[in-house]
Amino acid sequence: EQHDRSRCVTMKMLRLRSPSVASLQQDVRCTVRLLDDAELACSIQRDTKGQFLLDHVCNHYNLLERDYFGIRYVDPDKQRHWLDPSKPVVRQMKCKSWPPYTMCFRVKFYPQEPIKIKEELTRYLLYLQLKRDAYHGRLLCPFADAAYVGACIVQAELGEYDPDEHPADYIAEFKLFPKQTLRLERRIMEIHKNEMRGQTPAMAELNLLQRAHTLDTYGVDPHPCKDFTGVTAFLGFTARGFVVFQGNKRIHLLKWEDVSKLKFEGKAFYVIGLQREKKLVLTFHTSTPAACKHLWKCGVEHQAFYKCVKSSQIKTVCSSNIFFKGTRFRYSGRVAKEVIEASLKIQREPPEVCRSETLTIQVPLRSFCSLSHKQLIMNMEPLLPALSSFRDNKETNMDLSKSSHPHLHLQHLPDALIQSDSQSVVTGTVPPLETLRVNHDEDEGEGKEGEDDQMSGSLTISDMVYTPCCSPLPTPVQYEEGGVAMLFQSPAHMLRELHDDPELQAELRAEYERRAAAVEPAPVAAAQRPRPGQEQVAAWLRGAARLVAVATGVLLVALPLLLVLLESDIDVSFLHDIRQTPEFEQFHHEYYCPLRRWLICTVDSLLEDLTGN
């Protein structure tokens, strides 16, 4: 009877503490957008983890090499994230967004060597992702590479060139790149006619992968940031390492073996590594702390995937070195080498690849040039990019051909190496444009060390500026908010507005005078302001105080337990076993008993002195 009563009480407590059975069994609708813009709907439970959803999509494709892929979603604050396979889906969506949930299936880790992919199905999905990257402006490449990539896409989608079926301007009906000029379309048609004959769709897709993986923007998911000077930069993580783009140049390339630590604090993101045997610290600032944390987690995952040899070598990383502070994160999954080894063991018959026609038909939209000011689109995938008209493209092409800087029109990537006059340690900024020069007279007998230095230095990647404005960036903003510039409050931009507005200057001057009259004088305030050395001492004291607090808590827990063991007569099985050990008996007779006698004698002597007896 007592047992039944205690069981009823336990069941009531469980019902109070845990959610209702109906809420746990309630289905949640999810929609996953695939790489060909098709949608896959499914129902999950509220405690279903992300791995189940990823496996569901991979089973839909009959995909085995699934470690390269992931599922992306956007939270209520318009911040993009990768779905964590080890956590429940509903918990990651946060309580502000209600089902049905919409997510996107995308390539998360780009293979360093696509030729090592075992199955044609995996190569086809990677081809779809690269085609999206080129369409949205993420895969930026020189003119010659862009023409070859476009020809591979046309061959894979339309097949052999047929003069009866393909008119003179058949490429103009489709959009392959965000800024598709008439000159580029003609070059794509020439390559499609002459160099792509006899290639099957699978061969054309493989040729595209082989050409794309040599580009500097291959695998780059651009993260918009500002350096300490306020200049916009795009950060990315590739199979080779950490890259930074400004304008049409790659200004930094740190290989993964040279990156020692990635950390963030608030909106500040730090990359600590070595370059030419010197310590290098790159500092960047994101628009929100959530964007900075997403950037840091992406960097930790990519470094673990490409750098580690085994998944057992992956360690938990903390975002800060301060005691009891920071975010802890660990990448859970296989690394690149393990994925390649697993691919070699696949013995099944190759699955059938169901290709779909995914070429985008060109539609008249707003001018591309207006996007650099107020109309930058950064929203959830998939989106149609803002495209330029043919007139704008022709005028832009003519302006570029008449430019006074012909060295910027580079047709081949090896001829576009940029060297900086400054050899000092870089702090996250790029030298002025006047100090950059193109080196056309490279020595062919240069050693491997010189090649590594060139690869890690400045490098012109295209004659176009790397502004993936048609791409849904990791930190999307509203259409009318002004694009990347409105993600940050640039000090220079604010100063320009201040000097241009006399009324604003008068208001600020009056506000300053009012506050100066209400507070203490400025020299006193400056004297009370803590110096950098004092801030370091204060941080050290806070850490020491935390350590003392933890030690005190441990003592408060251990001391009562020790007194129970030594002084009480409680006869519990585990206490009895502890008392019977030789170590405990030795401690009791040699240390505790003399200490107790000394304490008793001391207390007795003090009492005698106080009472006079």
Automatic annotation (TrEMBL):
Taxonomic source organism: Denticeps clupeoides
Keyword match Repeat: no
InterPro entries: Band_41_domain (IPR019749), Ez/rad/moesin-like (IPR000798), FA (IPR014847), FERM/acyl-CoA-bd_prot_sf (IPR014352), FERM_2 (IPR035963), FERM_central (IPR019748), FERM_domain (IPR000299), FERM_N (IPR018979)
Protein name, per record: FERM domain-containing protein 3
Keywords: Membrane, Transmembrane, Transmembrane helix
UniProt xrefs under SMART domains: B41, FA, FERM_C
GO terms, molecular function: cytoskeletal protein binding
PANTHER family: 4.1 G PROTEIN, FERM DOMAIN-CONTAINING PROTEIN 3
Transmembrane residue ranges: 544-566
Pfam families the record matches: FA (PF08736), FERM_C (PF09380), FERM_M (PF00373), FERM_N (PF09379)
The keyword Transit peptide is assigned to this record: no
Main location: membrane
Gene Ontology CC terms: cytoskeleton; membrane
UniProt lineage: Eukaryota, Metazoa, Chordata, Craniata, Vertebrata
Residue stretches of biased makeup (Acidic residues): 441-454
